[in-house]
Write a structure and sequence with these properties.
Two copies of one chain form a homodimer.
Chain A (H helix, E strand, L loop, with lengths): L29 H7 L5 E13 L3 E7 L7 E6 L11 E11 L4 E13 L17 H5 L9 H23 L3 E2 L5 E2 L10 E5 L2 H7 L16 E2 L4 H11 L1 E9 L12 E10 L6 H21 L1 H17 L13 H8 L6 E4 H10 L16 H10 L5 E7 L15 E9 L3 E8 L4 H10 L7 H5 L8 E7 H9 L20
Parallel strand pairs in A: 3-5, 6-10, 12-13
Antiparallel strand pairs in A: 1-2, 1-4, 2-3, 4-5, 7-9, 10-11, 11-16, 13-14, 14-15, 15-16
């Protein structure tokens, strides 16, 4: 401890109290160096060696400190260049200069200190001269954030989350943290995780008559949330516009490239204009346009890094099936999320008609009774020039009980939004607001007692609401052309896998 | 469905495709009305009736749409005023005018439509003429967001979350979603929830030899996260500055006013300047100052609403023990979070000396071996004029195994930040970066094999890092002078309670 201590005149109650120096960071951030370009300045930078080129008198290293995908080139004269491994962490003191005709930046080192060695022979999984497939990188969840592509993915993920939240805040939506632990398994699908304290002594201490051990802690069965929608429906009746954005869970034995046991979902709930689903469509389209535009403006260097690595991966690993997806292309991102026309809209009936009439050789035959398969979704979008499609007016038997029936039809006011790479990105609906209709439905499902609070909220000061849920990872997959959801989640969990 | 259909010239691939009107909202937001004050404008507002005053020829109602704590006064001539209940939702069309000398806004209604009645005799829990205690309101989690105080708390909570995240983004921290599901019970405290699929058929299908049913799904025991720190430590070695902000869990049988089974924790991890804990202290203090200043600037009307309700509650319910906490006072908020001097620093040893020498009648006698009790924490802060105190240099046996030992002492480089109302707000440390020291400690705890990844990350390109965790609800409690944590969480969970 090396705290500057001085007597505090104003609050000198305890003689022992000490004051603290106002710290300014000792190290320059590489992102700031590239932004402000303070030529001729002396600076200290701390980071990891990403590449090394040895010349006769000079060694060049590229270093990254994680603040940006841009690497700072460091020139080391022989006498300040010890034995350096790619991956090692170093502290470099030097003067910022330019090199070449292109006005590129270079730190001419006067001093270099190795903080942490990186001996590849001790088992470091990444060789600086090799290009690795996403599958290979994914085997090392603990080291993956150190790779060029995954650190860029993580920075884009972080920016995207901020952009979604700031956009919704500007639109007047209040963020509401809906609970992960819940006694309500929502859609009744049964694909839930159940929860109890690990400590059996605790369960014994808390035991009550007539309550099973599993239910002791909360006096009820407790599950991990599959959706925050019903809690949002309660809060929207006080706040008008609400959203939740957090971890969501499915206990499915699925190893598909689109599913995880834990994923992030963005869900909104709002009062509808004219009781119409168009309010929800409009909220989604405006959000996707503005967020994508911001990311293109602010995260260009990460997007370019992801593209470059993807292009390289395809050169080296051409036989891996997931490389059927093209590398990220900024022009295609614009065409998909920022088309000059509005996103398309078709009814479910129209979708099935198009699929039935087309000559595509589907594995699953399109059928009105069965909904859309992934191949159907992807086909519809592809044939639409990769412009997103809202599919609306769904048969009620394909959708959840709380969706609003459309008068004189057997349809409900529901939507799916289809996009490239992943197919369904959002699902939403107008909610049933008629207490009697809803009561009948809950009764039929045997949920009337358990869900009485869900019914009750419609009895007092009711309003017509609607909303949607968006898989956040699916947005990232579509934006970045990353076929496997495990490659956009920091620490993915799927059946038989919960490493770290 | 009432979608405008038109042929799409540019993407006319499917004749069935339809385009969508660019929606603009039909209803004015009350927050925007107060901001822009468009006098003389005709507008439609949708909201809930919060109060009603009947005069001879005119009925006045105050309505809220949840966008702000400010209520818009609506003047209704007798012929447009049906029987109105407080709590009902209405749609009002009218012209905006001013009234009185104070330039206050008033919507003179030409049309009023009741959307949802609110018959109090059917069981609505809040009577418009009564002031309710926080305990009473808390009994109705489903209706609570409709109350003046709780809707303001929720708006402040939403703003505060945004301010923390935007501040950290500006400081160069990358948000990293650490997993809720984890095979690592982190601090080994045993106070964890365990997780398994609810569906027993699924477990049978997935069964593998030698794996217990409980562990089948993930091939390992799975818990709910008690901290994201160790995952942050992995990612910080690629990104330099990272944070996580999300739900965190404790399976404790505690009904204290400061604990929940599910709460929100903000955790950071960063590379340290000079390997010194002062970097972490500085990050915390700068963050709390900037976030609090922003909230005072932007959320004034909600803060004033909370104060006004608290003052009223104390008039009516003076005998409830939690009203020993004073109502929210903006001047006190500034004195605590924005003092003109730096936040105080003292060592743990100094804290114990002060507590031992003072004449306060503590329930628990201060003792070097036992750490600080809540009453000790609160006393220290109170005697420090409510200015936050960093307590540093903790005995290693009181802290977790991963904290950095201070040379030639039996202390570790740890910190607790103490504030009014809640005591400990943040806890943090420098992390042990010496592989051999850490390996010995893990070995002693029997965790060396299970935590090999935690050890491994220090073998390659290692850096000295540190960070802290802050209980988000505790910040809100201290900011808003709300003694019970259940009153700052939208849907709180605690032993024997998991409603909704």
């Amino acid at each position: 401890m090396n705290l500057l201590r001085q007597s505090l005149l104003k609050v000198n109650i305890f003689p022992a109290l000490v004051s603290k120096q106002q710290n300014t960071r000792l190290y320059s951030k590489i992102e700031a160096v590239f932004k402000t370009k303070p030529l001729g300045s002396r600076m200290t930078v701390q980071g990891w060696i990403k590449a090394k080129r040895k010349m006769k008198a000079v060694t060049f290293i590229d270093i990254s400190d994680g603040s940006t995908s841009d690497k700072l080139q460091v020139a080391l004269l022989r006498d300040v260049a010890p034995n350096l491994d790619v991956g090692a962490s170093v502290r470099v003191e030097g003067t910022l200069q330019t090199f070449g005709n292109k006005d590129q930046l270079e730190l001419v080192a006067e001093k270099l200190e190795i903080i942490g060695q990186c001996k590849h022979e001790d088992g470091y999984p990444f060789n600086p001269r090799k290009s690795y497939s996403m599958e290979y990188i994914r085997q090392y969840l603990d080291f993956r954030p150190r790779t060029n592509i995954f650190s860029s993915v993580l920075r884009v993920r972080s920016s995207a989350a901020n952009e979604f939240r700031n956009h919704l805040a500007n639109e007047g939506f209040c963020e509401l943290n809906t609970p992960v632990l819940t006694s309500c398994d929502c859609e009744g699908a049964g694909e839930v995780f159940s929860v109890k304290p690990h400590n059996e002594n605790l369960l014994r201490q808390m035991a009550r008559k007539g309550i099973s051990e599993e239910d002791t802690f909360f006096n009820t069965k407790a599950f991990l949330s599959v959706s925050g929608q019903m809690h949002l429906e309660s809060a929207v009746r006080g706040l008008g516009h609400v959203y939740t954005f957090g971890p969501t869970f499915r206990a499915e034995n699925s190893k598909s490239r689109l599913h995880l046991s834990e994923f992030y979902m963005l869900e909104t709930e709002e009062i509808l204009d004219n009781n119409n689903i168009e309010t929800v469509l409009s909220t989604i389209e405006k959000m996707l346009r503005e967020v994508t535009q911001s990311l293109l403006d602010k995260n260009l260097s990460d997007l370019e890094m992801i593209r470059n690595v993807q292009v390289n991966q395809r050169k080296v690993n051409s036989n891996v099936s997931e490389y059927e997806v093209e590398p990220l292309d900024l022009e295609n991102v614009r065409k998909t999320f920022l088309p000059s026309c509005p996103y398309s809209i078709m009814t479910y009936k129209e979708a099935i008609e198009i699929l039935s009439m087309c000559k595509e050789d589907f594995k699953v035959k399109p059928d009105h009774e069965n909904g859309l398969a992934k191949e159907h979704e992807l086909y519809l979008v592809k044939r639409n020039n990769n412009i997103p499609i809202f599919v609306v007016d769904w048969p009620s038997n394909l959708k959840a009980f709380y969706m609003k029936e459309i008068k004189n039809t057997s349809n409900v006011a529901a939507l799916d939004l289809l996009v490239p790479v992943v197919g369904e990105l959002c699902g939403g609906s107008v909610r049933e607001d008629d207490v009697h209709v809803l009561s009948t439905k809950l009764n039929r499902l045997g949920l009337e007692e358990k869900m009485s609070w869900y019914l009750n909220m419609r009895k007092f000061g009711n309003v017509q609401t609607g909303g949607f849920g968006m898989g956040f990872e699916r947005y990232l997959q579509c934006l970045l052309n990353i076929p496997n959801i495990k490659d956009v989640m920091p620490f993915p969990r799927w059946p038989h896998n919960c490493f770290m």
